[in-house]
User: Fold these one by one.
Assistant:
Number 1:
Amino acid sequence: MMHDLRARFDHGADHYDLLVSLNPGYHRHLRSAAAELASRLHDVDAPRVLDLACGSGASTRALVDALPAGATVHGIDLSRGMLAQAARHTWPPGVSFEQGRVGNLDTARLGEGSWDAVFASYLFRNIPEAGRDGALAEVARLLKPGGHLITQEYSVAGSPGADRRWTLVSWSIIIPLGSVVDRDPDLYRYLWRSARRFDSPAAFMDRIADAGFRDVRTRTVSGWQRGILHTFAAVRP
């Protein structure tokens, strides 16, 4: 499954930024989550942040804009195509990228217990259910004691209204746009399915807590994505 998913993102990388730019809330929601992370690190000089599933760099840009000068942001993504898009942008010192699969990272090389925060936008939904607990445990190992996890994710399980809204928007807007711009709707059909199959917000919060995190919280966004897009926050004890 992960090989197929990587191939989908590699194929769609050239047009991905254009397609997400057509979602008026996409970058705003990333900036909101990045600002929440920055507020939690307000007393940390030169914070070190891992940006997991960094994709083409939109989340990285949101972090760079929110964090103080001198911060380290290291992006990791499964897709070489997405990383190639990220490399096209100009980045300040302290920003770097590498290919990797969350759940199978070289945590010793990355530095266990050395990161102030992990930011993960649209990551855990793309990890098979059997691997999500291990991936969260991996994140916990990378964080310093007292380090923060902020992750943003689509989830409609347990909310029939949100599920109907997500299906309507997916099939009337997202998938047709993917077909026109990318000439291959498979990635966007996958997006629709994966959000419907992902943990409910309550179940994912339980999963985060079971991985050893405390103070697990969630909030949703306004507008049509209310009850669909969620930001989760937690702390490593």
Number 2:
Amino acid sequence: MDSIDIFLYVAEIMIIIGAILAIVMPLIKSIGDPGSLIKTGAAVVALAVVFFVMYSIADNEVTARFAADPFNLTPGLSQFVGGALLTTYVLFFVALLGIVFTEINKAIK
């Protein structure tokens, strides 16, 4: 086993732990304030809407090289990956605009 394989397994485990904690911790905190579940639900719905729009825009074209072994990429998987990438780009630019807006707002006040 190569050290890269070990690091990939560690990264996968950390992603799974992070995803579980990202779901469980707000639920634990919301026991004291059930109204906060509405904000969490709205954020999840907004993220799902952004992903659905980006998934609809994404192209499902697969070249012959990636359709064959060892990749075996299908058009559906290609569209899913494209949608995930487009969602990442959109959320990055929204976060960047939020940072710029916050800094301008703080400078004005």
